[in-house]
Amino acid sequence: MSEQTSQQNPVRTALVTGATRGIGRAVARDLAKDHVVFVGGRSEQDVERLREELSGVGPGTRPFVADVTSDEQVAAAWEPLAREFPGLHVLVHSAGIAPQSTVADAPREMWEQIFDVNVVSVAQLTRLTLPHLRAAGGDVVAINSGSGFTSRASSALYSGTKFALRALTDALREEEREHGVRVSSVHPGRVATDMQRELHEYMGQEYRPEDWIQPEQIAAAVRMAVDAERASAVEVVSVRPSGMR
């Protein structure tokens, strides 16, 4: 397919943050079948590695190399994509961090960092891309967590951001109905990713990836939201380990 979009038959586009690992990677691989995927990541090397993997799959990819906490880097990564494509059909927020700490041990810097990555950056990237999402009648999908509904010991930092992200997406959903933008919140339980391995290490537990949800199952939930007929909206999806194998 040409690098330039056709005005008669515009290609569908999807920006996926955190696309170089875990859930974001699975989502990017799935959407690449029928979208030009803007591969989001902090490392140019990791972004290019995934783009190479996806070469020849679907209509192609573009790089979106930026630290999501840097408005300058995000704007610089978005500007050439906004010039090339007339609209953004899908925005998937998958970038995130999950430091563990008790409230007693968490300094201000930990709170500021996790809220910046998991909440403020989501709001700012959404704000930046909303004109293109509105033009395309697009979808915003936030990868939230089961921790966006409940919290437990040592998870105040992470759960705090996920509760806040749920509030953000709930408000955005109502604000954007009149503009034709749908907003979905996907809440996975424990998923077999690097983040899950790190959590198990923190808890001193054995990590068995086969015990948990595979990232492709979360990508399937994102696909369900994106492919829903325009007369409907998949607003909240909770995907939990079944305990059955």
Automatic annotation (TrEMBL):
CDD domains: SDR_c (cd05233). One of its GO terms (cellular component) is membrane. Belongs to the short-chain dehydrogenases/reductases (SDR) family. Keywords: Oxidoreductase. This is SDR family oxidoreductase. GO terms for molecular function: oxidoreductase activity. It comes from the Bacteria. InterPro entries: KR_dom, NAD(P)-bd_dom_sf, Sc_DH/Rdtase_CS, SDR_fam. Pfam families: adh_short. Residues 12-194 form the Ketoreductase domain.
